[in-house]
Amino acid sequence: MDETSKAPALLWTPTRAGKTPLDDYRRHVNRRYYQNLRTTRDLHRWSVEQAQDFWVDLYDYLDLKPRLPKGTNRAYDDTVPMSSNPPFFPGLRMNYAENALFANPDLDAVALVGIREGMDLANEDGEQVTWREYREKVRLTASALQRSGVRQGDRVAALVATSIWAMVLFHASAAIGAIFTSISPELGLEGCVARLQQVTPRILFADSDTVYKGKTIETQAKVQQILDRLKPQPQTYIVPVASKPTSFPHIDDLLAKANPSDPLAFAPTSFNDPLAICYSSGTTGAPKCIVHRHGMIMNLKKISAIHNSTTLADIILQYSSTSWVVFYVMCGYTACGAKTILYNGSPMYPDAKELLRMVEKYKVTYFGTSPRYLLEVEMSKTVPKREFDLSSLRIVYTTGATLSPQQYHWFYSVAFPPHVHLCNTAGGTDTATSLVAADPCGPIHAGEMQVFALGMDVDVADPNTGKSILASGEAGEMIVRKPFPSMPCFFWGDMGNKKYKESYFERFADIDVWAQHDWLSCNPKTGGLVMHGRSDGVLSASLASEV
């Protein structure tokens, strides 16, 4: 390893040292467990060495509902092999939606802002939905789904873009215990069919139009082609975007089935019951249908509330399509009571500045994007801090690919205000959370990610022996050595969990660990982490198409 990589440039130091939610949690652990943890890395080490204490404590610290039974001191059975996917908090009845819809006590505060490509940001504010209105939409939709015959465990499919309706459909499905799955409407016919044929939805929602890069394309013909290849055919409703639906019922026809007196109630799902189905890229065959559990909210809220310091005062702009797991990560910020901006369209239309216009207009505090998007901004010769008021911006969160050292330098020396926390993270569709996360208490060095996420027993393994080489600075296989509560429940249709185990647990013959199939190293001098691409030769699902 050359000297440059050992001592990369220091570009950012904490602006709120000692005053972040991560500091608060570290002090909480010190008090409760009689520790003397001084840094985030100390806290991480404790969280994986004392995993049972950590997950039990975190559940209550995040104020998840219901409270754990008195005397709970184990989160999972650690005598069960990780590859057998030991359930977390067995017997606990909890529902994702109940934990996501009541985080903001101010019912008149804005929860969601819907923006569509082509909107005049200078003169239009978008569709704004308060927390009161949001819960009411979820209540009516949940009632209508149930009165349309949708039951716990049925699949609710949504061929819809990132929008208020996408959020409502997801949370209404979760409330009744149905399993939600979303696909971005610009995905081609064969991609849609390959996914929906496997999960056989009971009901399907589809945007009337795809809006992207200045074009508006009706989807009804594609929806009919999809239905022609689905057996059995699901009930189908169109969500209006631009054109008026004709041959299919409108979503208002579904809502007409709701009983106005039905309460917003939550199915008694378990922590480990299926919540949502995501899909692999399908690069090496049919897409894998990755089923995530209600309990994944624990890791989503851990990242948003503790690592990313999200509060009721935050305004979130996370660019993502609904085909990507980041859509669900974005939903996790509502569990902190933050306002969320939902954008249906291309981040590059009419130019690379459109998302920055939103940051300025809505006083965004958290901007989630990709290294590719930042590269597009750089190549357009845009200098964001000169052209836009970015004073509200607290953190820029990037994922899907690695930020180059040059991009870090551009970000801080040219493009963004020096107070902004630039975070490059790593996780994936499989984990439904970050393995490498933000540390608002620690420095940022050029080209390096900051810390392993709390509770995630991530290591760098020798590719032949599986032994830890983390301290050596050499690159190796990125693995997780202990279970975590957002491991997929299973793959849909995977009899005996054969593909599940092949995907994550057969990298090493002699040790039972989760293999992420990414190549990672840790700089011994800074503790920073560097991704070096895939370890298995398979193209990672990146933001090339997301920008």
Name its key features.
globular; Rossmann fold; 7-stranded mixed beta sheet; 28% helix; 19% strand; disordered N terminus; alpha/beta; 17 helices; 547 residues; 2 domains
Q: What is the count of DSSP helices, taking H or I runs of 4+ residues?
A: 17
Q: Give the CATH topology of the largest domain.
A: Rossmann fold
Order of strands, main sheet, comes to 3-2-13-12-14-15-16
Number of domains: 2
Structural class: alpha/beta
Strand content: 15-25%
Query: Care to count the β-strands?
Result: 24
Low-confidence region ranges: 1-5, 538-546
Helix content: 25-40%
Name the shape in a single word: globular
CATH classification, class level of the largest domain: Alpha Beta
In CATH, the homologous superfamily of the largest domain goes by the name ANL, N-terminal domain
Mean pLDDT: 95
Give an overview in words.
The chain contains 17 helices and 24 strands. By secondary structure, the protein is an alpha/beta fold. The protein folds into two domains: 3-94 and 282-534, Rossmann fold (3-Layer(aba) Sandwich), CATH 3.40.50.12780; 125-269, 3-Layer(aba) Sandwich (Rossmann fold). Strands 3-2-13-12-14-15-16 form a seven-stranded mixed sheet. Strands 9-6-4-5-10-11-22 form a seven-stranded mixed sheet. Strand 7 (209-212) and strand 8 (215-218) form a beta hairpin. Helix 6 crosses helix 7 and helix 14 (371-379) crosses helix 16. The longest helix has 16 residues, at 131-146. The chain is globular, with a radius of gyration of 22 Å.
